[in-house]
Amino acid sequence: MKQDEAQAEGIETEAAPERRRFRRADVRIFSSASDAPLARRPSDIVLLLVCVVGVVALAIPAPGPTALDTAVMNLVQQLPGLFGWFWEISYNLLLAWALGLIVVALVARGRKKLVLHELLAALLALLFSAIAGRAAGTDLDVSLRAVSSSQPPAVYLAVRAAIAIAVVVMASPHMSRPLRFLGRWIVVAGAIAGVALGTTLPIGLLAGVLIGLGSAAIVHLLFGSPAGRLSLDQIALDLDDLEVEASDIRHAPLEPRGAALALASAPDGRRLLIKVYGRDARDGQLLTSTWASIWNRGETPKLGVGRLQQVEHEALMTMLAGRDGVPVLPVVVAGMANGRDALLVTEVTGRPLITFAPTELTDASLAETWAAVLRLGQLGTAHGRIAGETIVLRPDGSPALGDFGRAQVAASDAAIRGDRAQLLVATALLVGPERAIAAANAALGSEGLADVIPFLQPAALAWPTRRAIHDAGWDLGELRDRCAEAAGIEPPKLERLRRVTVGSIVKVALIGLIAYGLIASLSGVDFKQIADELASADSIWIWSALLLSPVVQVAQAFSTMGASIHPVRYGPVLMLEYAIGFIALAIPSSAARVALEIRFFERVGVDAGGAASIGLIDSVSGFVIQIVLILTITLTGLATITLNAVRSSSSSSSGSSSSGGGSVWIILVVLLLLAAVVALAVPRYRKTLRDGVPRYRAMLREQASSARGALRVFREPRNVSLLLGGNLAAQLIQAIILGLCLRAFGYGATLAQLILINTFVSLFAGFMPVPGGMGVAEAGYTAALQAIGVPSAAAVSTAIAFRLVTFYLPPIWGTASMRWLRRHEFV
Q1: Of 232, 238, 453, 787, which sits 20 to 30 A from 804 (CA to CA)?
Q2: Looking at the domain assignment, is residue 463 inside a domain?
Q3: Burial class of 502 by CB neighbour count within 10 A (0 to 12, 13 to 18, 19+)
Q4: 283 with 363, same domain?
């Protein structure tokens, strides 16, 4: 009894090691305690988006079999007969494992909510499977029979796999790491077994897997999932494994992503900070860490970096910095415990900077903190997470830097200046702008302070500092102005972008009405025919196209990142791409992209010339991809467009060969000539053109050096790959969306034809001085679709539907993106 009381008070006894060894032998079933907090994770948004896009894409060739399905089935049938029993067991084990997870949660104490979440995931998977199967022509009763049946014929889609995967993936964050891995292997074997047994085709299997993953992601987004944080008792066991004596262990109030923090006391009275990368921690997994790297400056994806490697890296960087004169938090121990949890223990005697009141922080402490950060930069090392939480002031007032998990040697000048900007903002939040700027000016000098000003923005700050700015309702613009005044320079002025107004909307609406009137009259189709055709469209295909539409910007964001030699985060760039759709209604699309990108990249620290070059490089690379696609498809004969096809299509649909596709091509020339006449006849436009030529020529001369620096992206294989790959993927996705819209009206086309049509029309419309190519693009798509044999009414309706989901509706979510960019001071 006395022994138990002593252990409860944190006092070591002779029997304690024996008891710990016994408890170490216990098997962890769940990753977290039953009352562990749940959190919604952005990685589930990514997973859900991928699943939706995949299911929509698979709907095009569904229900199969495709050529790939046939090849895979033939390969499986040639396997030795010995695999028969294995496939049967694996297929049944898939469902049994899912049921087992439900039973385990049902009998475990405090896990009743987990049972409900698992059942909800299974129900969603069944519902989505039934909808997807019905869209492919599979009756509901057939889909339901596929859950229990393990015999042919093949059914689209793999309903049993979808339900089982939904339960397994939903429960995965709640289970310990060994059970997660075991569940994944069972899912893989069971999914393949479904194909081997002939219960589903590979295309149906893939659709079932995506539906299962998406259903689990929905439940995680609705209710959250645990992070797999260790309990205090488990942390005590890990410390014992590493022979660290500690008592009074408690969770730290602030924790970084991907790790857990705990505080403890050493026998000699020192305070210890324990960073734990738990074996069962979900935030350390690839998808979550990759998402963090997308959104947070200084975060890098842990590709192939395990728990022990992360601990070793932070310990090494801390000791290297301390050896070279940087005050750091001394490392007590770093290693892997017997339970496969990686721990880093540092001495943290003192208080984090963020806990001090402004009157407690002396000017001497601020000066020493600046000296520590400057010394780190002189060594060519960037910390990456300078914030009020990562700087500790010891009892004597001297500072120490901690949390070197994202530190890097041989860091770029931008990363080092980013550290200094982080410190300036962090101290300004604590002691006010006046004292913070004075301390920075004393440490850096006027020239050094001027170099830091471009980084005084959310994109350059660590996550804790950005959160503190948001909570305090701060305006970084005022801090930049004060810094510029202290440095004796003028703050950079960024030109405002043209906003969408009521007048611009009315103007766009009038242009649209005129354009559609001309298209309808010249193609021999009246509005009633178009309305009837639109009313008869299959809404499933239209909705599928709409759901796939936001993915175009996902690909374009990679291209924009590739155009910049300056490192930028993917998340804000994606918001930039969506915002371009918002302003494209008022400004021609190419101009909108260039103008908004210039303002965006100036905000992240790129000079004006480099920012302008990034937009131009991105646009030119897109132009190159379009030309290459057109030449490749036409020269190889994969697809062709002829005027004869246009005439015959128009004749068969309207009964008049004289008003067919040839007339539709006339509208393209008419609109081009009309645009040229307007530009020359209207005095304002003519003056703009006349005055703009010399102004732009002078601007290009002034920014030539910056532009040459931006062109260095073509020397980097990674940037070139992002540039070309992003633009190519965007063109392919747009072609698929066009195919979905065409399928809605009962017609189809090859992928080569769709790519050629979309690429040619978008290239042609991009040259037109019309907002978003309005009218020109619709006419082009109509003519091109008629050229491959689509009747006039269906061609016009497809063009309208395609432009609706790719141009007219995206400004809805583009508005939210523009607000986000403004709120975070990216534009």
Answers
A1: 787
A2: yes
A3: exposed
A4: no
Contact 347, 369 (CB under 8 A): no
Same structural domain, 144 and 236:
no
Which of 223, 248, 274 finishes a domain? 223
* 601 neighbors 564 (Cβ within 8 angstroms): yes
Residues of the chain predicted below pLDDT 70? 1-27, 68, 73, 75-84, 143, 150, 228, 253-258, 278-306, 492-531, 584-595, 607-612, 615-616, 639-715, 766-775, 827
**Same domain for 63 and 182?**
yes
Q: Is residue 667 part of a domain?
A: no
What CATH number has the domain bearing residue 419?
1.10.510
* CB 550 within 8 Å of CB 786: no
Instruction: Kindly report the number of other CB atoms within 10 A of residue 357's CB atom.
Output: 8
Are residues 264 and 382 both part of a single domain?
Answer: no
Question: 651 with 772, same domain?
Answer: yes
Q: How far is CA 325 from the centre of its chain?
A: 39
Task: For residue 276, give every residue at least 6 positions away whose Cβ sits within 8 Å of its Cβ, in sequence order, or none.
Answer: 230, 235, 238, 259, 260, 261, 262, 341, 342, 343
Range 242-271 burial, b when 16+ CB lie within 10 A, else e: bebebeebebbeebbebbbbbbbbbeeeeb
Using alpha carbons only, what angle is made at residue 407 by residues 428 and 723, rounded to the nearest 5 degrees? 95
Report the phi/psi class of residue 567: left, alpha or beta, with left for phi > 0 and alpha for psi in -120 to 50.
beta
Q: In what order do the strands lie in the sheet with 271-277?
A: 247-251, 260-265, 271-277, 342-347, 331-336
Let me know whether 741 and 806 are in one domain. Answer: yes
d(CA 161, CA 212): 7
Helix 570-583 to helix 551-562 angle (10° resolution) is 120
Are β-strands 247-251 and 260-265 bridged in parallel, bridged antiparallel, or unpaired? Answer: antiparallel
C-alpha dist (Å) from residue 364 to 377, 396, 446: 20, 11, 20
Q: Residue 621, Cα to own-chain centre: how many angstroms?
A: 22
CATH number for the domain harbouring residue 277: 3.30.200.20
Between strands 391-393 and 351-352, the pairing is antiparallel
Largest CA distance in the chain: 103
Do 299 and 397 sit in the same domain of this protein? no
What is the extent of the structural domain holding 564? 537-662+698-823
Whether 283 and 300 have beta carbons less than 8 Å apart is answered as: no
Residue 500 half-sphere exposure, CB side, CA atoms within 13 Å?
A: 20
Total structural domains within the chain: 4
Task: Answer yes or no: are the C-beta atoms of 800 and 778 closer than 8 Å.
Answer: yes
**Domain end (from 312, 347, 382):** 347
**Residue 15 maps to a domain:** no
> Of 481, 413, 477, 485, nearest to 451 (Cα)?
413
Of all residues in the chain, the percent with pLDDT exceeding 70 is 72
Whole-number pLDDT of residue 737: 93
What the block records as the tokens of 777 is 């693009």
Side-chain half-sphere exposure of 105, counting CA atoms within 13 A: 26
Residues 389 and 470 in one domain: yes
